[in-house]
Specification:
six-stranded mixed β-sheet; seven-stranded mixed β-sheet; single chain; Aldehyde Dehydrogenase, Chain A, domain 2; alpha/beta; binds nicotinamide-adenine-dinucleotide; Aldehyde Dehydrogenase, Chain A, domain 1
Length: 468
């Protein structure tokens, strides 16, 4: 059995051999990754069900299709992303060839969480392969069925020389992180991100951090309240609220809240029946520890549970729960909820809602439900977040054409589609110079003079391009 450092050393020497560079190699690996997902759909769905009781419908959409769509997009486009990007020059460099070359970073580490255990390892992997890197994948120990399935399937389909899966919990990950990687792509909690940054600082390794936070859902002005309730319930309780982009809390006026509550009740009953515990379409909480954390939050809140609240420890079940009269300093507002509990806070004006959002850390996603475009635009203008979606939740992250990532405490860097390729590429600035225009070049050589300086300034200014 290889040690971590042997795995990393082996991948590094393979990377240095240049095997991952040709377009055909990358295309073949991406195509095999597609086959891996297609040919093993059933076992993947079973593993996800074992880990989280994830409904097949949710797993097909949010674990399989999101990856295969990104794969299709990458396979169809990465050869154009690989091409050198020629850039403008000035008079002093007019005869030179100047371009940006996308080069692979080397051996990269991708660390995944448990909530979408397949998607959040394979989506970054698509970009890492397309960009020509060797990759170590580290699945979460809290989704062991999916983690060990990936450890079995990846070497069967992808080049074992270039890609490896290393399983383990915090201690193994810390040991793995002692090795030098050329990039670390981490998805998970803000707390662990601090350890990742510390480990990365030892080797000055660049990182992408895909973190979480509290995503607000601001309902304001005129709005189709029944449709808003259905979209809110779907995006909140999908994966039992264990989504980094799930609406974390609702902000709305008291009258909107009063109109919203019966619609939320109706939508919950329509989606998950009167007895959600028996409904196969509702996911479970990942572990007893996470279940206890959520139950503790419900015990601590000073808000009033108006929908749900039931739970069952053995089944790791918590009913879709709505809490009202929640204050800004309530326990439910201290940390990311990451479970099926939806607090509603009341604010009486657009500005009051915007101020509340801006007092908190910058969220990964921000949602505004309103029929009034001026309200949507004002919130968009006056707030900051990783992503933004009006009149729905989660959906913005399904497009490979939009970057996905956080800002501030919700993360740094982004991926999906071309953005993944860019994340795992170095943009190398290249200038291929000839021997011409030596008299012009001589302007920079000593002995210096005022005359030479003013000519040189002119030949290197952007204005000098326009006369050529
Ligand atoms: P986590 O940070 O506990 O674990 C993520 C990974 O880090 C796992 O592979 C785990 O083994 C490893 N790990 C745990 N402790 C470690 C340590 N001390 N040192 C090194 N590695 C360690 O996160 P989680 O609980 O799996 O995921 C939940 C969090 O992830 C939430 O905050 C959620 O918002 C966030 N998240 C973000 C995104 C995103 O795309 N931005 C997606 C999903 C989840």
């Amino acid at each position: 059995m290889e040690t971590h450092s042997q795995v990393v050393d082996r991948l590094r020497s393979v990377f240095c051999s240049g095997i991952t560079i040709p377009e055909e190699f990358r295309r073949a690996q991406l195509t095999k990754l597609m086959s891996m997902i297609k040919e093993n759909e059933e076992v993947i769905l079973n593993a996800l069900h074992k880990d989280l009781s994830k409904p097949k419908f949710e797993a097909a959409l949010a674990e399989l299709d999101i990856v295969t769509n990104d794969l299709h997009y990458a396979i169809n486009n990465f050869s154009s992303w690989m091409k050198p990007e020629y850039v403008g020059t000035n008079l002093a460099t007019k005869l030179d060839t100047c371009f940006v070359r996308r080069e692979p970073l080397g051996v990269v580490l991708i660390i995944g969480p448990w909530n979408y255990p397949l998607q959040l390892l394979l989506l970054p992997l698509v970009g890492a392969i397309a960009a020509g890197n060797c990759v170590v994948l580290k699945p979460s120990e809290l989704s062991p069925a999916t983690g060990s399935l990936l450890a079995e399937l990846v070497p069967k389909y992808l080049s074992q020389d270039c890609y490896a899966v290393v399983c383990g919990a915090a201690e193994e990950t810390k040991a793995l992180l002692q090795n030098r990687f050329d990039h670390i792509f981490y998805t998970g909690s803000q707390t662990v991100a601090r350890s990742i940054l510390q480990a990365a600082s030892v080797h000055l390794t660049p990182v992408t951090l895909e973190l979480g936070g509290k995503c607000p859902c601001f309902i304001q002005g005129r709005v189709d309240i029944a449709a808003a309730a259905r979209r809110l319930v779907w995006s909140k309780f999908f994966n039992a609220g264990q989504s980094c982009v799930a609406p974390d809390y609702v902000l709305c006026s008291q009258s909107t809240r009063d109109a919203l509550l019966p619609e939320l009740r109706q939508a919950l009953e329509d989606f998950y029946t009167k007895d959600p515990q028996k409904c196969p379409d509702l996911c479970r909480i990942v572990s007893p520890r996470h279940w206890t954390r959520l139950i503790e939050l419900l015990k601590k809140t000073r808000g009033k549970v108006v929908i749900g609240g039931e739970s069952n420890e053995e089944d790791k079940y918590i009913a879709p729960t709505v809490v009202v009269d929640v204050a800004e300093d309530d326990a439910l507002m201290e940390e990311e909820i990451f479970g099926p509990i939806l607090p509603i806070l009341t604010v009486e004006s657009l500005q009051e809602g915007i101020d509340l959002i801006n007092r908190k850390e910058r969220p990964l996603a921000l949602y505004v439900f309103s029929d009034e475009s001026s309200i949507v635009n004002t919130v968009l203008e006056k707030t900051k977040s990783g992503g933004f979606c009006s009149n729905d939740g989660i959906v913005h992250m399904t497009l490979p054409t939009l970057p996905f990532g956080g800002i501030g405490a919700s993360g740094c860097g982004s991926y999906h589609g071309r953005y993944s390729f860019e994340t795992f590429s170095h943009r190398r600035a290249c200038m291929l110079r000839g021997w011409g225009l030596e008299r012009l070049n001589a302007l920079r050589y000593p002995p210096y003079s005022e005359d030479k300086l003013s000519w040189l300034r002119w030949t290197t200014s952007p204005k000098s391009c326009s006369i050529m």
